[in-house]
Amino acid sequence: MSKKLKVEDYEQIVKIDRPDVGLKGFIAIHTTKPGSALGATRVYDYATEEEALQDAMRLARTMTYKCAIAKLPHGGGKAVLIGRPEVKNDAWLKAYAEEVNKLKGSFFTGEDVGMYQKDLSFLQQHSNYFIGTANKAGDSAPYAALGVFYCIQTTLNFVNGTPNLNRVTVAIKGLGKTGLELARFLTNEGAVVVGADINPAVAEHAKKFLPSIKIVPVEEINSISATIFAPCAMGDDLSEGQLGKIKAKIICGTANNQLQSPEVGDRFFEAGYICIPDYLANAGGLIDVADELEPGGYNKERVMQRISDLKKTCLEVLKTAKDQKISHYRVTNQIAEKQFTKIYA
To answer: Residues 324, 266: contact at Cβ < 8 Å?
Structure first.
């Protein structure tokens, strides 16, 4: 399991408890030193409140690093709300908007697992602190997937001397919003996509959307014989127990917090895997929604250029890891931490 995080290492932890509407969860703000904290809202049926809190804290810290790696003037935050997505109704959503309003702009949020565009449209009627507006940034999933796609191409080019994906097998775990978008980018380039999802209905939808996808049981997807493994579901997919079981030597996906710990990242590196850190690869989604907060408002051209710039950072990570013989996660952390120094100086 991941190391337990300490509340005192965070700028603010807000517990949400609204029994009048059945709303319960947490907002974790890691830091606002660079600027207001950014982080999407996740609705998930956590087994315990402590599990929800730890997830919020891990994700908030990752968002600080993601903002730094994307060179955005923001800190990291995250909201997690406990329950199945079906619990949402107008009263529940309005109560959540009220909780976010209490933070007075120190935290901006948008859609993540279990939160959708229709929810966001309603929330934006009750709060000015929700980003990902339908006629501006919109759904961030295609942009998160695009960043991962670019990093996959960059890594293939680094390893093979060509970014060509034709007939390259990619195993995708999780065929929700970002996983399906990634599958679309890959199949358009001729890749052979094998996918799995814990929800049979999601897998069935993916098959209808992209008939060329081969669907396998979720318990088999990690060990598929593939060139690339793309974790696109929940976190903690990369553990020491998966060393050797994952056949693909390139790991790059949209899921957050894929590694159980930095030490696990070291073990994967030592075993010959190239693990592109999630907060680098999937930063396109953040870049997209954060652009709504730029002076002058949302600019699609700027968004696309910033997502394209992730290729340069990915190449820097690949080269430095190879030259210095340290894991890709530690290299990416170092780059992000150098950016912190510039911001905090």
So the answer is: no
